[in-house]
Design brief:
mainly alpha; MetI-like fold; 13 helices; globular; MetI-like_sf; transmembrane; transport
């Protein structure tokens, strides 16, 4: 006599909900484009190009080589200031344009342009505009505002300016979406009780914006930390702007040491993860309110 199937077993044998098949293409793309390359990169980083090193030899070499591990500090010196400038600069602009108006559409359209151009085209334009013989230095000299040589390319400042130009629109659009999602009747109600505009911003808008600002900072940081074209075209890749991505490129395509390049990429991901986790932890430590602000 056949053993009856229990209720949990019947649940496991039941055909899945047809709606679940809608996420199958996205799941397959996620596995093929992200999960598999990550697992393969981790496995490759635990090998050595010549087959003589141990599993952690690439990581030990990275953190003992004075031409590699300082690239993390260089990258942080670029990513952290650009993130602060983009997010803190985007906040007042987005707050001023929180109400729907023709000015909001015009400014948003203008700020979308750098996003569509890309970092390479922005770097090429900056070489023409900020180079010693470019428009900007010539304008400063012509207006007698500055008489010495203006050096804004092939150094740290050129890369930082590029990160701000390419990252500010991204941060602005993120912050603007959070600001416009806050119910304006909350501020109007506070104003009827005598709250000043600063008090409204401090006690109503800012607490509701903390989660959004944190996410904007995380995404802006990750975007800036992976800087590569700007560091090569506008910086000094052999000196003050030798970021971690350049070290990974040199290991892969100049030394043909793909395990070492994979190890550097894993270190980059780990540093980004630590910084992002720190920002999220700080948000939870200083903010315990609702995670989103909506018009509901």
């Amino acid at each position: 006599m056949a053993t009856p199937i229990s209720a949990p077993a019947r649940a496991w044998l039941r055909w899945p909900d047809p709606k679940a098949w809608l996420v199958t293409p996205a799941l397959l793309a996620l596995i093929a484009l992200f999960v598999y390359p990550f697992v393969y990169g981790v496995a490759l980083s635990l090998t050595s190009a010549d087959g003589t090193g141990g599993a952690w030899s690439n990581y030990a070499r990275f953190f003992t080589d004075t031409s590699m591990w300082p690239t993390i500090i260089v990258t942080l010196k670029l990513a952290v200031p650009s993130t602060l400038i983009n997010v803190l600069g985007a906040l007042p602009v987005a707050f001023a344009l929180r109400k729907s108006s023709p000015y909001q559409k015009i400014v948003t359209t203008l700020l979308v342009v750098p996003v569509t151009l890309g970092t390479v085209l922005i770097a090429d334009g900056m070489l023409t505009y900020f180079s010693p013989n470019g428009w900007f230095p010539q304008a400063l000299h012509g207006l007698h505002l500055y008489s010495d040589e203006v050096r804004l390319t092939h150094n740290y400042w050129g890369v930082l300016i590029s990160l701000v130009i390419s990252g500010f629109p991204f941060a602005f659009l993120l912050v603007l979406s959070y600001v416009t999602g806050i119910d304006p009747t909350l501020a109007r109600a506070a104003s009827t009780l005598g709250a000043s505009p600063w008090s409204q911003f401090r006690h109503i808008y800012m607490p509701l914006l903390v989660p959004g600002l944190t996410m904007a900072a995380c995404l802006s940081f990750v975007q800036a930390f992976s800087v590569f074209p700007s560091a090569v075209l506008l910086g000094a890749p052999a000196g003050p702007t030798r970021v971690t991505s350049i070290a990974a490129y040199e290991a892969a395509f100049e030394n043909y040491d793909y395990p070492m390049a994979s190890a550097i990429a894993i270190v980059m991901g780990a540093v980004q993860l630590l910084i992002v986790a720190g920002m999220l932890t700080a948000r939870r430590a200083f903010y315990s309110g609702p995670t989103t602000g909506g018009k509901g």
